[in-house]
Each structure stands twice: as C-alpha cells, then as structure tokens.
Amino acid sequence: MTSILFALPEITVALAAMALLLIGAFRGDKAGGLVTSAAVVSLLAAAALVALGRESGVALYGMFAVDDYRRFVKVMLLIAAAGSLVLAPVFFGGQKSGLKPEYPVLVMLATLGMMLMISAHDWIALYVALELQNLGLYVLTAFQREEKRSSEAGLKYFMLSAFSSAIMLFGLSLLYGFAGGTGFDVMAHTLAQGQAMPIGLVVGLVFVMAGFALKVSAAPFHMWTPDVYEGAPLPVTAFLAAAPKIAALALLAVVLGVPLIAAASVWQPVLMALAVASMALGSFAGLLQKNIKRLMAYSAIANVGTMLVGLAALDPVAGGMSVEGLQGVLIYLAVYFVATLGVFGVVAGLRQGEALVESVDDLAGLSQAHPWLSLVLAAMLFSLAGVPPLAGFFGKYFVLLAAVKAGLWPLALIGVLASVVAAGYYLRIVKIMYFDKGSGSVLTSPRSYAHNCGLALATLFVVLFVLWPSPVIEGAHQAVERLLVP
Questions:
Q1: CA-based Rg of the chain, rounded to a whole angstrom?
Q2: Quick count: other Cβ atoms within 10 Å of Cβ 195?
Q3: Domain membership of residue 145 as a residue range
C-alpha cells in the first residue's frame, strides 16, 4: 500500500490519460478542446498531489524513489507540461487539421515517462521510463502529418534519440557488469569500496554521459535540436524546450550525485567540457539565426551549458556534488522553463496575415500593434539573458557563484562572457519589436482566457521574483540537502 501511495501522482496521470483517450476515441476530433482542458486540470491535480506528499523512501522493490528533491522537480515538470498544453488550442485552432484529442493524451504519457525518470532508483527503471518518454515525443514531433517539416523533424528526432538510447544502454550494461546489480545503491556501494576503477567502468560512464548529453541538447551532441525545434508544431517545441530539459537534467544530477559520486574524477572533466562547448556554441550560433524557433533552440543549448556548470561544481570539503551548485540548477530550471514558455506563448498567438509568425523580422512593429504582448515577450527575453532584477538573473547568479566557490572560476568566467554574447540575440528581438517598422500587419489569433492568464502569471513570476524569491530558493535548498546530505 505504501508503494502505491508513493506513486499516486504517476497513477493519477496514467489513469487520466487512459480515460481521456477513451473520450477522444468515442467523441472524435470534436473533443479536442474538452480533452485538452481536462488534461491541464489532471496535470495540475497531479502537481498538487506531489506538493502535498510528505513521505520519503524507496518503493517498488528498490526501483522507485520519492523525496523532497524529486517532489520539487516533479512540480516544475507538471506545471511546464500543463503550460505547454495551454498553447495548443491557440496554435492548432488556426490550423486546418484543428486540435485533435490524441495530442494532450500523448503529452500526458510523455510526462508520465518523465515523472518515472525522475523517481528512477534503478538502471532498468531509468531506461524503461526514458523510452516511455521518447515514444510520446516521437509522435508529438511529427504530429502535423500534412506538414513535410514536421514529418522530417519527427524522423530526425526518432533516429538520433534512438541512437542516444542505444549509447546509454550500452554504457549502462558496462556499469551493471562492474557493480553486479542494477540498483543505484549497489553502484554507490561498489564504488565506495575505493578500488581502482577498471577501464570498462570508465568507458561505460562516458557512454552514459554521452546519452544524457544528447537528451539535454548539450554540444557537441546538439545536432538534432535546431531542426527538430523548427520543424515540430510550436506547442510541441515549447514542450520539448521545457519539460524534457527539467526531467533529464534533474535525473542527471541524481545519477552523478548519488550512485556515481565516487567516480567524480571521471565525469567532472567531461561535464566541464560539455558546459564550455554548449555555452560557446549556443551563444555564438544564436547570433546568426533568423527563425524564432531555431534561435530558441540555440538559447536552450546555451542555457543547458550554464546549468551543467552547476552540476560540475563539487564541494571542496565533502568531496561530493555541491549543494549550492545543484540548488542553483533547480532555481535556474524554474525560471528558465517559465521564460521559455512565455516566449512561445506570445509567438503562438501571432499571425502575419494568414501565415504563422516564424521569423524574427516578422515581429517588427509588434509594440505598436500589441503593446501588452511585446511587453511580455521583452520581459521573458530579458530574463533569459539574465538581466537583473528579473528572475533569470538569479538562476545564473546561483549557478556561477557555486562554480566560484568550488574553485571553477574559469568556468564561471566563461559563463559570464557567454551570457553577454547571448544577450545580443535577445536584445535584437527587443530592438525589432520596438524600433523597426513592420512591413505588414501582425495580427493575433483569438487567445483563450487560459492563455491570457498563463502569460500574465509568467510575467508576474519573472518580474516580481526579486520581491519574493524565498519559495523557490528555499524550496530548492531543502530539496537538494535531502538528496545530497545523508
């Protein structure tokens, strides 16, 4: 019974997805709006169940773990998934195919896989949950079958994601061969013996990290990200930019900070190299982008690089992962996903004539046509750039401060310089909105009440975070302490 209570939010999401799938099957395409609204309510209800949970421990034969860290991350994940679903009626309402009821069901099933990933306490559970997430994302990316770009994006995502899964599975098999078991506790106990690590373990660890790097879009394993972001339907791009990043980075922190912490001498240099490559590539390549979704793809790569800096920071005294570093990563994730969804939320409701707004230049004159939307978009972009006192500044501050405390000041300096470079493409969008004259009329499609409320809440969070940051900062600190401190 305790095991069932531990997994109650996951069971809620699974049962809701099955029920909504039946409703969609019986009522047909006309049930798209109803199923989407019910899916948003179900995800928020699951988030409430997670937040109200107080028990911690390991259940389901050692495969499923629950603690404050995982609860904190799951709440972010479920809010991000619900927020991305709010964009669906606005976007698909202007498409010929309309909003189909299977779309929110696929989002829920992918989210269920991410929740199970976060709670994984065993290599087998981790891999099965990862594949459950991937199956939903494959279909979502190619959801607009009549669009060539969407089908191409789905194929690219399927091929490269399957490749990364194979790489990770091979690495996990080597780790299993070294530890003699699939549980995280078994791996941690084996590494704690202090024996010299065989070359097979080192190779396995590198393969696992390469698989994670592909999942989180870290350079040089980022190759799928710009094309998939551009080709996927905009609500799917918003979902990809927010939810999987939360789940994969949170899981990577658990894997490195708990079962593999004794192998930090192996994975820390790899993580530092990934961080530098991601920050450099994401910052400079983003300056050349004209398409909004491709620009946000390189923004994601640069931001992931900064978050990897926090994971690379080790406590110089205890020798484990830095509490301040992982706390900074959680704060960064919280402010990043809100700002990212805010950007896509504005773009989802814009049309230029009958065409979708896809180019950065299409935003010219937005401040005159729609001052409120331009203000929201500017706030989100300034937050992503890390401009104080907006929320994004605090994410970068805590991560880079932790790196300095851990003695990684060159990495922190690179992070600061990369943020300055990346600010160039965020400021270019603001400049186009406010100072360039539009060549045509930029129109908004009818926006729902939920969409307007979502934009308002995101803006308030980003702008007013400085006045009341304690729920996120203290919540993240408590969550990380419970994970890293025995």
A1: 21
A2: 8
A3: 2-484
Other beta carbons within 10 angstroms of residue 88's beta carbon come to 27
* Overall number of domains in the chain: 1
**Residues contacting residue 336 through CB under 8 Å, at least 6 positions apart:** 242, 245, 303, 307, 384, 392, 395
β-strand partners of 122: 183
Total Cβ atoms within 10 A of residue 317: 7
pTM for this prediction: 0.94
Task: Read off the pLDDT band of 194 (50, 70, 90).
Answer: low
* Confidence label for 13 from pLDDT (cuts 50, 70 and 90): very high
CA distance 214 to 222: 6
User: Do the Cβ atoms of 158 and 138 come closer than 8 Å?
Assistant: yes
**Planar angle of CA 417, 419, 420, nearest 5 degrees:** 65
Would you give the distance in Å from CA 220 to the centre of its chain?
18
Mean pLDDT of 73-86: 95
- In this prediction, residue 317 carries a pLDDT of 65
**What token pair was written down for 463?**
């702008």
355-356 β-sheet, strand order = 355-356, 350-352, 442-444
For residue 475 the two structure tokens come to: 């919540």
